[in-house]
Amino acid sequence: MTPSEAYKVLGLREGASEDEIRRAYRDLVKKYHPDQYVNNPLSDLAAEKLKEINEAYDVLTRKDSRSQYSSQSSSSNWRPSGSAGGYSGDFASEFQRVRQYLYENNLTAAEAVLRGIPLQNAEWFYLNGLIKLRRGAYDAARDSLGRAASMDPGNAEYRNAYEAMVRSYQSYGIQRRGGMDMCQVCQTLWCLDCCCEMMGGDFIRCC
Amino acid sequence: MFGYLTPQKGELKVREYEVYRAHYCGVCCSLRKRCSLVSSASLTYDAAFLSLLGACAAEQDRLECSRCPFKPYKRIHLTKGEWADYAADCNLLLAHKKCEDDRRDDHPVRGAFGSLAFKRGCRKAAKRLLSVLPAVEKGMERLFHLEQEGCGDIDEPALAFGEVLEAVFAGIPHAGKAREPLAWMGRNLGRWVYLMDAWDDLEKDEKRGNYNVLLRRFGSARAAKDEKERMEFNLLHSLYEASTALPFLPQGPLFPIVENTLMEGAPERSRRLLAKYDGAPCSTGAERGTMAVEKAVCPSADTQEET
Question: Positive or negative, the Cα torsion across B227, B231, B232, B234?
Answer without folding.
Answer: positive
